[in-house]
Design a protein that fits this description.
The complex is a heterotrimer.
Chain A lengths: L10 H16 L22 E8 L6 H18 L25 E8 L4 H15 L3 E4 L3 H14 L2 E4 L16 E3 L4 H16 L4 E7 L2 H17 L2 E8 L7 H8 L5 E5 L2 H13 L6 E2 L2 E2 L1 E6 L2 H7 L7 E4 L8 H14 L5 H20 L4 H8 L3 E2 L7 E3 L6 E2 L2 E6 L10 E7 L1 H4 L18
Parallel strand pairs in A: 1-2, 1-3, 3-4, 4-5, 6-7, 6-8, 8-11, 11-12
Antiparallel strand pairs in A: 9-10, 12-16, 13-14, 14-15, 16-17
Helix pairs in contact in A: 2-11, 3-4, 5-6, 8-9, 11-12
Chain B lengths: L1 H8 L1 H13 L1 H4 L8 H24 L7 H17 L4 H23 L4 H20 L3 H4 L5 E2 L7 H6 L11 E2 L2 E2 L2 H24 L1 H11 L1 H6 L5 H25 L2 E2 L6 H14 L6 H14 L6 H7 L5 H12 L6 H15 L3 H15 L4 H12 L2
Antiparallel strand pairs in B: 1-4, 2-3
Chain C lengths: L1 H31 L6 H19 L2 E5 L9 E5 H6 L1 H8 L1 H4 L1 H18 L9 H23 L15 E2 L1 H5 L7 E2 H23 L1 H11 L1 H6 L4 H23 L9 H16 L4 H18 L2 H6 L3 H16 L14
Antiparallel strand pairs in C: 1-2, 3-4
The chains are: A alpha/beta, B mainly alpha, C mainly alpha.
Subcellular location (chain C): Cell membrane
Family (chain C): Belongs to the binding-protein-dependent transport system permease family. LivHM subfamily.
GO molecular function, one term (chain C): transmembrane transporter activity
């Protein structure tokens, strides 16, 4: 147990840190904008290092997604410290990042395993905050975890940059002053999907929902229902399925005789893989109902997860936050450096995590301090571009990013093993915006007592 | 020598040593990276959980696979107490223990009609039902997957009675003004752990405990003597459930959130593993097992390649390139692997768990003429890793 | 009527899966007295035999996609296909059923090694220690699979001609809307076959007879001068093979990942215990019973009356059965009830 030394315990590491710290301490203090002398948790002070906490699922069903997030974080750290080709640092506008760390401090990190469980994720985040002294926590692959860690971070006065979380609640009823989400949400999926569904499948459809029985599933079901019913669709039934049900046959068979002609799967991860491949096995897609072809829709699509469903995803419509095949400058730069580093394209989870890290670093530069309330004020209402989703706004009222949403379709004839999703349409930002008051909740205070 | 032995047997002395070791955890866990409030709290809380489980399993041999249900109920009761009544932790703890006790009485009453594996599966079934319901249909009470949290708008009737002013953020749990996060939270848990340890020791030594041991060795014989064993069993089950409820409420005290996955079978399985790993039926064993598993979960999972590269930076680069990925398989995202191997190694070579291992070391040094007293203290210390 | 008929089919299909996993578990429980928490891992290993076999037959020439420059993206052209044309294509298409040929010897070996190397030392140890060691082993197996194959499920398509659905309704005169996937029907027949084979082995061979005698009274059989240890090894290996082939055949229904075993572990224990310790028939019965009950509880009509009933029905039924029948459906006195 004790053969592995604590980080920083090794003599060489200590010497190095000492040397860097000495250098920074020697820099005339006029260059360090230190206008806010407030005390705050994990203030790096004169250490010359800034530590970020990467809290991702490393065990459990989302371990692969977590691994991809971690890769993105390490790449972001490299780019911030001026190593590698710089990636999106070159395309991110307006940016004060120059590749020499953040506010002159070298970026380092600590990692943890959320296990995709609220308890474990909070324990891991607490370890980073209490032991490793991180200034910001980021990552995660589920909304339950995001909400749980976000509220912890609010209490601790540590900024939380959410990873993959799609529930409306994260920036809705459970939003927090210290929590920020770049990823899109269920409402935006519904709003983006509706026009495409209208175009492809018409306005006279009868939908049947299968919904994962937990908060994310419910918010997505609600959002999709609202936007499809606005098209004129009817909702035949909405059935809750237990999380991790594995075999969905008993939920799929009733669809056959329900008179529905569209099946909407509000599932993510393994549930999505299982329910989708089983629904296809049951021959749903070969059916004709009400004189129309039966269709399946998966509102939240992820390339990493789609792999597990194999051929079943071909032709299925859904939305995604980002896809590596995008051709804007930011995406190209990111895919280029991620691909060169790891030999595979980044997933949408990796993209959002990378962007979140850069956004936080840039906000610190803009604030000229690590003091969280000032950093938060910089992020609130921040307009930026060049990060792969077009012009984007971090809305001040609920800390939700607003950007274009991609509608994708499972590729019928992929040209490579990564070419699983094809972008059908880009729904412009204006169409997915909504009034922040509809979800309730309140952000809470800037200042957190220590 | 005989003097020392007498001292060791003395209960008060054992408790004092135990208390000293627990309260000094921040000092002796520091070198191995275990000194931060959250982990210390977890050590103490899961120690209580395991000690309580051991009262049932260690004494009676009844293997419950559903103890996580009581942990979860304790947490939910405590968080509701924070939401409805007051942020003071005393009522929260009392409600946690009370509700867990009531649930244990119901589940125990039904499950104890059966023995052996049938009993285990009954308890498992009850716990899984609680978990599945908490995750889905009971969401209004449990807040489902996200977990039950505090909100600014909570009524907190008692607190409002005494003060009208409202803080800007969420209130934190407190014990008459002392905030229960960080180190004060740990000391609160640690004191309760010591009390629990003492009670458990008294139970082990009491006629009641002997009766339970009698049931374990031969239930039928006890019955033939005309004794109705059920009330004894049920009492042990309820006490054990209340320990779990206490642990659950302390989880909420140190971090006011109650998640449904606390009730899942994996959580029930975890306490079983902790107890067997440390040594079922021994006083300190279950605690050691709990400490070891929590240490792995929190510390080993955090060793990423970056940390490893630093730790092995004394090696030449060519060796380093080879060593880091190999070691990386066992730590970081591979920490489960090490845990699995550890389970196997300990149970294969040390039937009787960690405590058995320390006994062997102790015997070895005793026969070698080493100083028995310091040895045993040290053994205790190491065990917390 | 249609709905009920199809839910019965669903229930049978689920029941077949439960029964097949429980069968091996109860065999080991009943004969060797071992609480094998690694049984789920054996099921998962079987499923990964199918994955490995598929990987082997689809070893491919990689045709690079020149449009992508940042990393190597390629389209796979399996050698089998380019060398043997249609024959190769058929082999790849049938990789799941064919992989049973890999699974049987592999699982035999795994079972043999596991019993000789580990389990046999635990016959006389307390159940608690058996749980700890087999659970540890399950974690180790699982993590090794994860390190090699990743955590994501890996799709294992059924052969093309079995990918669609059979028009079950027209077979029984219930209209055209009643379809059921071919592969699930095959799985049902397959599990019937395996269950029958295991029963026949135990019932109609002298070898099986001795094993059955050993289940009832190990000591006496040993006293008769029969090498019961050897037979135990064989029984354990058979249990591993049954779990393994069950895993292989289940892959088209549930794309396998490293965690598959743990998901079935708890359930298979519930099935075995509800069936009654030491009873093969009981386990099979309990498997089908729980499968059918679960299917019916998931019907919308039922869920409207009892919301969330589909989440707990398995455990509810288990509790009721165990409280009414002290030793499950067909359990015998004296087996694992102390």
């Amino acid at each position: 147990m004790s053969d592995i030394k604590k980080p920083g315990m090794s003599r060489r590491g200590l010497l190095k840190a000492g040397a860097v710290g000495g250098l920074v301490a020697a820099t005339p203090s006029i260059f360090i904008k230190d206008a806010w002398a407030q005390e705050f948790r994990n203030d790096p002070k004169n250490t010359g290092e800034l530590k970020l906490g990467f809290n991702v699922p490393q065990s459990g069903p989302y371990a692969d997604e977590g691994a991809d997030e971690l890769r993105a974080y390490m790449l972001a750290v490299k780019h911030l410290n001026g190593e590698g080709d710089g990636g999106m640092l070159n395309t991110f506008k307006p940016s004060m990042l120059s590749g020499n760390g953040v506010l002159g401090k070298k970026v380092t990190y600590a990692t943890g395993d959320t296990q995709t469980k609220s308890d474990a994720a909070r324990a891991s985040a607490k370890r980073m905050i209490e032991k490793d002294g991180v200034l910001m926590v980021t990552g995660g692959s589920s909304s339950g975890v995001a909400v749980a860690v976000q509220s912890l971070c609010q209490e601790q006065g540590i900024i939380f940059m959410a990873g993959l979380t799609h529930s409306n609640d994260t920036t809705g009823k459970d939003k927090r002053r210290y929590g920020f989400r770049h990823f899109f949400n269920a409402y935006m999926s519904g709003a983006a999907l509706a026009p495409v569904l209208n175009k492809e499948y018409g306005s006279d459809r009868r939908a049947y929902h299968l919904t994962a029985d937990y908060t994310w599933g419910w918010t997505q079901e609600e959002s999709i229902k609202n936007s499809t019913e606005a098209l004129g669709w009817q909702t035949v039934n909405a059935v809750k399925t237990p999380v991790g049900a594995g075999d969905f046959s008993q939920y799929i068979t009733p669809v056959l005789n329900s008179g529905a002609d569209v099946l909407i799967l509000n599932h993510y991860g393994k549930d999505m893989i299982n329910s989708l491949s089983q629904a296809v096995q049951f021959g749903l897609r070969d059916k004709q109902v009400n004189g129309k072809n039966f269709e399946i829709v998966v509102p939240l699509f992820s390339r990493l997860m789609a792999q597990g469903a194999g051929d079943a995803i071909k032709g299925i419509l859904g939305t995604t936050n980002w896809n590596w095949s995008l051709q804007d400058e930011g995406s190209k730069a990111f895919v280029q450096s991620f691909g060169a580093e790891y030999g595979a394209p980044p997933s949408m989870a990796a993209h959002t995590c990378y962007v979140q890290t850069l956004l936080y670093a840039n906000a610190c530069e803009m604030a000229g301090t690590f003091y969280p309330p000032e950093v938060i004020k910089q992020l609130e209402g921040f307009n930026f571009d060049g990060m792969g989703n077009g012009p984007t706004l971090y809305r001040a009222e609920d800390h939700q990013c607003f950007k274009d949403v991609l509608v994708v379709r499972g590729n019928e004839n992929p040209s490579s093993q990564f070419d699983l999703l094809k972008v059908v349409d880009v729904t412009p930002r204006a169409q997915v915006e909504y009034d922040w008051t509809i979800f309730g909740g309140s952000l809470g205070p800037y200042e957190v007592k220590m | 020598m005989t003097n020392t032995k007498k001292l060791l047997l003395n209960d008060t002395f054992v408790v004092i040593i135990f208390a000293a070791a627990i309260l000094a955890m921040p000092i002796w866990l520091d070198p191995i990276g275990g000194n931060y409030p959250d982990l210390l709290q977890k050590f103490a809380i899961y120690g209580i959980f395991a000690i309580g489980f051991n009262i049932l399993f260690g004494l009676t041999g009844y293997l419950s696979f559903g103890h996580a249900a009581f942990l979860g109920v304790g947490s939910y009761a405590a968080v509701w107490s924070f939401k409805l009544l007051t942020m003071n932790v005393i009522p929260a703890v009392i409600f946690g223990v009370l509700f867990a006790g009531i649930l244990a009485a119901v589940i125990g009453f039904l499950s104890l009609r059966r023995t052996g594996i049938y009993f285990s599966i009954l308890t498992l079934a009850f716990a899984q039902m609680s978990y599945n319901l908490a995750y889905s249909v009971l969401t209004p009470i449990t807040n489902g997957e996200t977990g039950l949290q505090l909100a600014r708008s909570d009524p907190r009737i008692l607190d409002r009675l005494f003060s009208q002013e409202q803080a800007a953020g969420l209130p934190s749990t407190d014990l008459f003004g002392e905030t229960m996060s960080g180190y004060p939270g740990f000391y609160f848990c640690a004191v309760l752990l010591i009390v629990c340890f003492y009670i458990s020791m008294r139970i082990f030594r009491s006629p009641f405990g002997l009766m339970l041991k009698g049931i374990k060795s031969n239930q039928n014989r006890m019955r033939y003597t005309g004794l109705n064993t059920r009330p004894y069993m049920l009492t042990a089950f309820i006490i054990s459930g209340m320990y779990a409820g206490l642990a659950g409420s302390l989880l909420a005290v140190t971090d006011p959130l109650a998640g449904a996955e606390r009730m899942q079978w994996t959580a029930s399985g975890e306490v079983v593993l902790m107890t067997i790993l440390g040594g079922a039926g021994t006083l300190v064993g279950p605690m050691l097992g709990a400490g070891l598993i929590k240490y792995f979960e929190n510390i080993f999972s955090a060793f990423d390649d970056n940390v490893l590269t630093q730790a092995f930076s004394f090696l030449p680069d060519s060796v380093l390139e080879f060593v880091v990925p190999v070691v990386g398989l066992f730590v970081g995202s591979g920490w489960h692997l090490t845990l699995g191997l550890l389970f196997m190694v300990i149970v294969i070579f040390l039937p009787g768990g960690l405590v058995e291992g320390f006994r062997r070391i102790y015997d070895y040094f005793k026969s070698g003429g080493g100083n028995a007293k310091t040895q045993s203290v040290e053994a205790r210390n190491q065990a917390g890793e | 009527m249609d709905a009920i008929f199809i839910q019965i089919l669903n229930g049978l299909d689920k029941g077949a899966a439960y029964a097949l996993i429980a069968l091996g578990l109860t065999l080991v429980f009943g004969t060797l007295g071992i609480v094998n928490f690694a049984h789920g891992a054996l099921f998962m290993l079987g499923a990964f035999c199918a994955v490995t076999f598929q990987k082997l037959v689809t070893i491919s020439a990689k045709v690079r996609d020149e449009g992508v420059t940042a990393f190597v993206a390629y389209k796979e052209q399996p050698y089998l296909e380019s060398w043997f044309g249609d024959t190769g294509r058929i082999i790849i298409d049938y990789s799941v059923p064919l992989s049973i040929m890999l699974a049987i010897p592999f699982m035999l070996l795994v079972g043999y090694v596991m019993e000789r190397g580990l389990i046999k030392h635990f016959y006389k140890r307390p159940h608690a220690e058996q749980i700890l060691v087999t659970f540890g082993l399950a974690i180790v197996i699982q993590e090794i699979i994860k390190a090699y194959f990743g955590a994501n499920p890996i799709p294992q398509p059924a052969p093309d001609i079995l990918a669609g659905s059979a028009n079950v309704g027209s077979w029984v005169g219930l209209g055209d809307n009643l379809v059921y996937p071919w592969w699930r029907l095959i799985y049902l027949c397959f599990s019937g076959l395996i269950i029958f084979a295991v029963f026949a082995f135990l019932q109609f061979t002298t070898y099986g007879m001795v094993v059955r005698a050993g289940m009832r009274d190990r000591e006496t059989v040993g006293l008769l001068g029969i090498n019961i240890e050897r037979r135990f090894t064989v029984v354990f290996a058979i249990a591993a093979v049954v779990a393994g082939v069950a895993g292989v055949m289940y892959t088209p229904i549930l794309p396998p990942d490293y965690h598959l075993g743990m998901e079935f572990l708890v359930l298979s224990f519930v099935v075995v215990v509800v069936g009654g310790m030491g009873s093969l028939g009981g386990a099979v019965m309990a498997g089908f019973l729980l499968g059918i009950v679960q299917s019916f509880a998931s019907m919308n009509e039922v869920k409207e009356i009892f919301p969330g009933i589909d989440q707990i029905i398995l455990y509810l039924v288990a509790v009721v059965i165990l409280l009414v029948l002290p030793r499950g459906l067909l359990g015998r006195a004296g087996v694992m009830d102390d």
